[in-house]
Specification:
The protein is mostly beta strands. The protein contains four helices and 15 strands. It has helices at 20-29, 84-93, 159-169, 209-213, and strands at residues 8-17, 34-38, 43-47, 54-59, 74-81, 102-104, 108-114, 120-125, 148-156, 173-180, 185-191, 219-224, 239-247, 256-258, 264-269. The strands form two sheets. The chain has an eight-stranded mixed beta sheet with strand order 6-7-8-5-9-12-11-10. A hairpin with a 5-residue loop joins β14 (256-258) and β15. The longest helix has 11 residues, at 159-169.
Length: 272
């Protein structure tokens, strides 16, 4: 394809939450993120140093509490680390429950937890269990190691419509396709990057996956589940409000819209 590859980044993942300050505090102490407060907007931002997305927690005073729903168009964030067992041990020691890690097929060594407001976090290791070499822990860091928000995971019923938007219109690059048909879904990973995976001629290659988990930037992971419902994002109470993407040379005029499955997007034109 001679498509013009646009550069950009997934810049903000914006949540509406009750007790935003205390939630941000949890991301700081338990997950080891840096946190800043915007007193004017009653919002807090949490992030790891580097190129990854920033989480923004906007205070809301009323409405329903967030409940994770496997039929929602939004699923989770993924935090990538070199040693999942160590990260889990540290998080458990702070009083948060984390599932037992396992090597999920030829996808990754991973486990899950929820933050105090009920949003799902996946811990995903840079390497498969069989290729793991234990690194030296850094006890100055909450997780004992550096971390990246490696994924924001959404869901779609129609991957072709999703790719038309994210790849063809917004200019993201498709880096990996992971067919998990045993479980009735397929995963697609996209990012704003000039990098190519190790096997660009075969995006289904298992050989692309550990490389993908080691990227310093946030990828969009889309879970395609044909025939399953996909509920759009709610607009009031607690929930994911929107995902902001900075896109160079964006030629659209509408800067706020829903993707085909109800994920709310804000587009900022980069000043680059």
């Amino acid at each position: 394809s001679t498509r013009d590859l646009k550069m950009g980044k997934i810049s903000e993942h914006f949540f509406r939450v009750m007790n935003a300050g205390s939630l941000a505090g949890w991301y700081k102490t338990v997950m080891g993120m840096q946190v800043s407060e915007n007193a004017v907007h009653k919002s807090w931002t949490a992030f790891y140093p580097g190129e990854g997305v920033k989480l923004v927690f906007q205070e809301v005073s009323s409405g329903a509490k967030y409940k994770s729903n496997r039929d929602s168009c939004y699923w989770k964030i993924g935090v990538t680390v070199s040693d999942v067992d160590l990260a889990r041990e540290k998080i458990m020691a702070s009083g948060t429950q984390v599932s037992v890690p396992n090597q999920f097929m030829e996808v990754g060594y991973l486990c899950h937890l929820t933050d105090p407001n009920g949003f799902t976090i996946e811990l995903l290791q840079h390497t498969f269990k069989k290729n793991f070499v234990k690194p030296v822990p850094d006890n100055s860091l909450a997780l004992g190691q550096d971390a990246v928000i490696g994924q924001i995971t959404t869901r779609t019923q129609d991957i072709e419509a999703s790719l038309k938007l994210y790849r063809d219109e917004l200019g993201m690059k498709l880096l990996s396709i992971q067919d998990i048909s045993d479980y009735g879904f397929c995963l697609y990973f996209l990012a704003f990057t000039s990098e190519d995976p190790p096997h660009p001629e075969d995006l289904n290659s298992v050989g692309n996956r550990e490389w993908l988990w080691q990227r310093p930037y946030t990828t969009l992971e889309i879970q395609c589940r044909p025939g399953q419902p996909c509920i759009p994002m709610q607009e009031d109470g607690e929930g994911v409000d929107h995902i902001t993407m900075e896109v160079d040379d964006y030629d659209g005029t509408i800067l706020s819209f829903e993707d085909p499955d109800g994920v709310q997007l804000f587009i900022e034109k980069s000043s680059a």
